[in-house]
Amino acid sequence: MLWLLLFFVLVASCVTAAEDVTRHHEYLDEDEKFVLLWSYDEDEIEFETQVQTRGWLGLGLSPNGGMPGSDIVIGWVKDGQAYLTDRHATENSLPPEDESQDWELLSGYENDTHTVLRFKRKLQTCDVRDRVINKDTVRLVWAWNDEDPVEGSGPSGPRYHGTNRGTRSTMLLRTDVPETTLPDNVLTHDLTMSNFIIPAKQTTYWCQIVELPRLDRKHHLVMISPKVTPGNEGMVHHMDFYLCYKPQNMTGLPPDHNGHDCADPNMPTDWNDCFMGGMLAAWAIGGLNFTMPEHVGYPIGEDGGIGYVMMQLHYDNPQQKEGVVDHSGITIHYTPELREYDAGILQTSGSFSPLLVVPPGLPDYLVESYCEPECLNAFLEELGQPIHVFADVLHGHLLSAKMRTRLIRNGVELPEIARDDNYDFNLQLTRVLKEEVTIHQGDIIMTECVYDSSNRNSVTYGGLSTAEEMCQSFLYYYPRTNMTVCSSTAHPMNTLSFMGVEGIDNWNFFDGLNISIMSPHEMANMSYVDVVDGMAWNITTARQFNEHQLKGTYVSGCMGQPATTVDWMSLTRERHLPDPEGGPPTVDKCIDRTTGGSVGIHHDYPITIFVFVTYALAIFSSKLI
């Protein structure tokens, strides 16, 4: 009986591991010939590659999508025997094998069409030739050839992959909302463009009003699915959806109105009210389905009758293609079965106007912004309780290299809400938090971006186009407050004083670029942009400007929904950036990087099984003696 029990314990452990590797999966190529499946725990990650080839295959972790600097594994199956080699690339050629072979082959086989390999590795190997696997975005490089290496794993190595290669960004250590079966009473409704012809220009922000499902009472939105028109994936950059809080008075409604350029002065003025109604959903390039936690739903249909949403779609058309028809949007899944809490989305950000200045030539230009503490306190006091963040979307543009959402309490830095030190403009997933983060009155939320402008020759300003920059964080939280936006930016004089401006006319948070330079006299007729563009930028002045701005004055404010009792327009403030005490210490798990030793955190169940097996064998052996 003991042997039988031991057998079932071992089988159960193996089955659990085998099933778990399929927890995440993606097609790495457009033709769906290279499938990657994986799972992970706190110490290691396990992969399974399923590739349409009977030759070799390669998978790498790249710093930027190229070969040099990549941590690569190459494997194949020959005469029923699986092979795997750990390699590192220093140039665009066959990567040499590592002295320390840290990838462990678990199994492999091939059939008439495919080669399947399963292998694993520690997240941190402490080998300088291996890349650490963490929660950052990672660029996967992949390749295959239809023939095995000439001499097994010998010096001839794999043949050239030819055109069977590519790169794809993903987040390997992402947290997903646990999959649950949606209730039988879940309904769906599409919020999409109506065969819109994308303008033949590089950047378009198009606003269109679409109708929500007609509901006679409050429902909860529980899942959002993107619907991007096939063939337009590279042009539909991101989509925002805002609730219009005065539907009975709206003008320019569908189906008679096809929308407006969001920057068009002729856009109906009442459409601007939708920005105050709260954000319903946000999606960006690379985003997948998003499911709310089981205890949370986003409220729709609260007032009954007809409801409308303003869609704001960002199209990126650098080749200025003509006649491209688009009907992208999202599908919302909603239910009359209300959950415990109403969800909300809070945008914390810096400026996305030319008040955001990124000088050229720096790989690590730092921009900070914060949510005005008096705004947060006022809206939380109105709510009467703290809020709990369960997901975050970090949003920047082409120069964005690193982003994070910080949290400060009582002057002390707490663990970040979200962080990505390898940010990719082309992958902007909703990051579900492993544990919810509670935000109390008195807390400070900061949004931080690091920009790489080393390949730019002129200033990059904040703005709506892809070539301009943003630094935004969208926090998904509950219970919902009446606050929709909380932001700050460097005061214009903070910027202009570095260039020699001595004084400007009265200016406030809502004046935007309406800045009148008063002194010195020779600058009196210059615009803000003229002064900044006139600066003789080099690496030294850019770094000095960065330091100057971070130490200067910032101006902050917020926006609220019409239903709020908070007088948010009176809460604009001028202050310096928060300067918290140091955050939680970082733990270096590597004892000796030359030997590859590491101090890792392991799951308990393998140890438990090992102890049980050892104990069982000891008992069984004693019975035989």
Automatic annotation (TrEMBL):
PROSITE patterns (alphabetical): DOMON
Residues of the DOMON domain: 32-145
PANTHER family: DOPAMINE BETA HYDROXYLASE RELATED, MOXD1 HOMOLOG 1
One Gene Ontology term of the molecular function aspect: copper ion binding
Region spans: Disordered: 148-168
Entries under InterPro entries matching the protein: Cu2_ascorb_mOase-like_C, Cu2_ascorb_mOase_N, Cu2_ascorb_mOase_N_sf, Cu2_monoox_C, DBH-like, DOH_DOMON, DOMON_domain, PHM/PNGase_F_dom_sf
Cofactor(s) required for function per UniProt: Cu(2+)
Highest taxon above the source species: Eukaryota
Signal peptide range: 1-17
A Pfam family: Cu2_monoox_C
Organism, as annotated: Branchiostoma floridae
Protein name listed in UniProt: DOMON domain-containing protein
Family: Belongs to the copper type II ascorbate-dependent monooxygenase family.
Keywords, sorted A to Z: Copper, Disulfide bond, Glycoprotein, Metal-binding, Monooxygenase, Oxidoreductase, Signal
